[in-house]
Design a protein that fits this description.
38% of the residues lie in helices and 22% in strands. It has helices at 21-31, 46-57, 89-92, 102-106, 121-124, 133-136, 151-165, 175-182, 186-196, 236-254, 260-277, and strands spanning 2-5, 8-12, 15-19, 37-41, 61-65, 72-79, 82-87, 111-114, 137-140, 170-174, 200-204, 210-214, 218-221. Belongs to the carbohydrate kinase PfkB family.
């Protein structure tokens, strides 16, 4: 499997924690047993070396793209049940050059795109050239307010998500994503993306669980309750998309029908994984106790 997007260092309570949506997804997939390549902007600096070591420790192969401004960092602060981020210049001006690595992406069984600067046409357009996106492409736009400073950025980002999502196997939309990018609630966004051509849309709503909208049915799964307290919500959405992507890749290999029963089982597993991930610090995917 191949993952494309952001890798950065989260600074949480003064400590450096490897993170970034794409890195979290890649490591999560590896922890679920997948063979993973990660394409991300990482420099040869202290934060970058931390990310390289973290990826390697989980068996993830990192294909770094140029990072002239250094490796991205994000200072995270808690705001109720969610996290807010302030990015350094490298994070705000992030750029993942996919074009030279399209052969690597085309060789993967599944490609997951998570948290890219899709408001930049030079980064968005190459994703439209990935082979067989209707079967192989999973997209988590994962927008952040700090990445979209003006209404024009928001419009460009939305238009790119809709163009790419229209040809994708699964598009993930969070409740905060829908409000930031579309100015509406996520189920309305799901209806729009399905009408444009997406095969399925995964809506995540934090403590309210997740819903998979396909063209013929919608399946909801609540988040799992656990006795342990929530430590933070970093990586919960990344764990969810990793769990779904891993199951989708397995279904492709085994020829399993991706229908209502499949979605019901996969979403339940994903909500257990997301809940377990919230019980530890940082974005490392956690497997629930069985």
């Amino acid at each position: 499997m191949a993952v494309v997007g952001d890798a950065l260092v989260d600074v949480v309570d003064g400590r450096s924690v490897p993170g970034g949506a794409a890195l979290n997804v890649a490591v999560g997939l590896a922890r679920l047993g997948a063979d993973v390549d990660l394409v991300a902007m990482v420099a040869d600096d202290e934060p970058g070396r931390l990310l390289v070591a973290h990826a390697a420790s989980h068996g993830v192969r990192l294909a770094p793209t140029p990072a002239p401004l250094g490796t991205a960092t994000a200072t995270a602060t808690r705001d109720g049940d969610t996290m807010r981020y302030v990015f350094n210049e490298a994070g705000v001006r992030r750029h993942v050059d996919v074009t030279p690595l399209l052969p690597l992406l085309d060789a993967a069984d599944l490609v997951v795109v998570s948290c890219m600067a899709l408001d930049d046409a030079s980064q968005a357009e190459p994703l439209l050239r990935i082979a067989e996106p209707e079967r192989r492409l999973v997209v988590d736009p994962n927008p952040r307010p700090g990445y979209l400073p003006t209404p024009e950025h928001v419009v460009r980002f939305r238009e790119a998500v809709e163009r790419i999502g229209a040809r994708s196997r699964v598009v993930k939309v969070g409740d905060e994503d829908a409000e930031l990018v579309w100015g509406t609630e996520p189920h309305a966004v799901a209806s729009r993306l399905l009408s444009l051509g997406a095969a399925a849309v995964l809506v995540t709503e934090g403590p309210d669980g997740a819903t998979a909208h396909a063209r013929t049915a919608s399946i909801h799964a609540p988040i799992h309750a656990m006795d342990a307290p929530i430590v933070d919500t970093i990586g919960a959405g990344d764990a969810t998309i990793a769990a779904v992507a891993a199951a989708l890749a397995e279904a492709e290999i085994t020829g399993t029908d991706v229908g209502e029963d499949w979605w019901r089982e996969v979403l339940d597993d994903a909500m257990a994984i997301a809940a377990a991930t919230c019980r530890v610090e940082g974005g490392l995917l956690q497997l629930p106790a069985r």
